[in-house]
Amino acid sequence: MLDGVPQRIHEVTAFLAEVLAPRAPLTVIVDGGDHGAAASFAARLAEAFPPSARAWTVDAVLGLSGPAGGRFDSALNVLEPAADRVIVYLRSGPRGRPLGSGEGERRAQVVIDHHDPQWPVIRHVHPRLADPERWYLTESRAFFGARAAGWDAKFGDDLPAYAMAVETAAPRPGDLAIDVGCGTGRALPALAAAVGPAGRVIGLDVTPAMLQAVRDAGRGDRADLVIGDARRLPFPDAVAGLVFAAGLVQHLPDPGAGLAELARVTRPGGKLMIFHPSGRAALAARHGRTLRPDEPLNRENLEPLMAKAGWRLSRYDDPEDYFLVLAERLL
């Protein structure tokens, strides 16, 4: 706590002030969530600006498309970003209740997970405001580290879906299989069984608390666990027979570059499995939005990205209960 305000709020607002302060004159609009949360965050953000910049406007603007208590995208339905305006969107809302189409979040240059107002986490910053190197690792660890201990209690019934995905990927006995962004290691037992005693499994995650959760769950016995960044994998070229990536690609700041890095460590003829234990439409609905045409995992967007990165897409499944993409590393 600093002056009665949680350290995490100070960290996020100080970073945003550092990024935005050189861009005066500027209006910062804080939207999303409920009016009280937006107003409170806007006040903290305004306090974080240096005194010379406090003549700027930092406002919580809501309700322009409906009452603040309604489930609308609020101000962002009518306000577009401009050179002198930055929109900060607070991603929040009651679980299971839709928040709108997601257009508000799409238009924002900064998106903050605000389900816990005491633990805000930056989930997106437009690259013209800040290079991902300035925030991506810190904020990813803040987001997943706070959730690691309870992850399996919330999602532990997904294990059969992960086993199905590994069976579909069909790694060869003796292969090296790398689970990039392994989380609590739900795919690791199935991967180890598939490659057999002559093979090797590596579970990589950027969040130390997630790897500790792997150990606590007893899933690290047949896998080497590595702390690492999916954008810069600590492995030589062309070593993996299978790269398994669950819930990873769409969260990378540059999905195309991420796919190229996954290709770099995969041998020619090796495979990539992109997976999620929910269909994309169902997952979007749980987060209170609908799928958008610009999403990187839409087939029409993903397939050219994969081809450019050195993959040939061979299977694309997106029913309600899982999402699965299988691709082969080109020669």
UniProtKB/TrEMBL annotation:
Family matches, as Pfam families: Methyltransf_11 (PF08241)
UniProt GO molecular function: S-adenosylmethionine-dependent methyltransferase activity
CDD domains reported for this sequence: AdoMet_MTases
Domain Methyltransferase type: start-end pairs: 178-274
Domain of life per record: Bacteria
InterPro entries linked: Methyltransf_11, SAM-dependent_MTases_sf
Protein name as annotated: Methyltransferase type 11 domain-containing protein
Organism: Paractinoplanes toevensis
